[in-house]
Amino acid sequence: MKKSLLILNLALLVAILGYLVYTDLLHPKPVINKEIVVSYGVPELVIPDTVFFAGERVPLEIPDVRERLDRELHVNTFWHSNTIFLLKRGKRWLPDLREILEEEGVPDDLVYLAVIESDLQNKVSPSNAVGFWQLLKGTATDFRLEVNSDVDERYHPIKSTRAAANYLRKAHDKFGSWTDAAASYNIGRRGLEQGLTKQAVNSYYDLLLGEETSRYVFRAIAIKMIFEDPSKFGFNISEVNLYHKEKLREIKIDKSIQNLRDWAFEHDINYKQLKRYNPWLRSNKLNVGSAKTYTFLIPKGKDAQAVMADTTVMVVPGDTLEPDIREMPEELKGL
After folding, report:
1. How far is CA 308 from the centre of its chain?
2. CATH class of the domain comprising 52-241
3. 50, 231, 264, 302: most buried by Cβ count inside 10 Å?
4. Three-point CA angle 130, 111, 220, nearest 5°
5. What are φ and ψ of residue 296, in 5° steps?
6. What is the pLDDT of residues 6-39, one digit of tens each?
7. Strand 52-53 vs strand 294-299: parallel, antiparallel, or unpaired?
8. pLDDT tens across 55-103, in order?
9. Where along the chain do its domains lie?
10. Extended beta strands in 58-141, E state
11. Is residue 240 predicted with pLDDT exceeding 90?
12. Do 293 and 93 form a contact (C-beta atoms < 8 A)?
């Protein structure tokens, strides 16, 4: 009797052990290496107590002002790919654009309007606003930029910056505030004036506005904060990976050119390079009137694929990554 009971207990034990082994084989428990497990979290962004834009204090004591800046700071901090390329392009462009603004008596903080307008690329908007500063044809010609079938200086980052600076200075003369001048760059001087009058206030920060203009100045302020201290917001881009100026030389043009492709080959470059550094050329020819002179920029030396280096000559590349495909067929005619 005892022997039979012992055999039964042993059989039961074997069955239990077998079941445990079987279930572990079919449903193994995950192995967690505690050394490599990290907790995921999004870092908190803190709005400073005091923020200035173009020398004017941002009234963060107004609740919606603080919230609007908070939103734009988060959007542009965590829109990683876009902001990374803004920082990269900014290394090439912002020093020259700031210099133009300073010459025109405009605070250099307003350079960030070009950043938010175009991402520092020669873009074309659905309303046909063009270039770094997204100028409409009428505005461009009002500020003495040349716009025709051969030449469109809205695509010239340096000349268009001077035109934008003139607009902003006139807007400041009208409103007495660089913040209001910046807002008018988006909504127009008349639009801002009408808003201030109808709502009986005297500041952009007190206006009830549409979504785009309501966010506009705050996005510029947020981009400024990120550019001034990128590592604080998680952007650690090594100097070598930023976009630098390239070695270029100037060539004065005082005679018409019937075929820019042929002209490029005669100067040891190709058509793409000519258009990259002179995006304001809008066709395959250039008509030069009497007493008129243009300046072409082309790579220095025999090596047309210029290496990255500082130079006193301003670089004016075109929109090579995002070409205006609507215009390209016309540009390529006659090649």
Report:
1. 20
2. mainly alpha
3. 264
4. 90
5. -95, 145
6. 666 666 666 666 665 555 544 555 554 555 445 5
7. unpaired
8. 999 999 999 999 999 999 999 999 999 999 999 999 999 999 999 999 9
9. 52-241, 248-332
10. none
11. yes
12. no
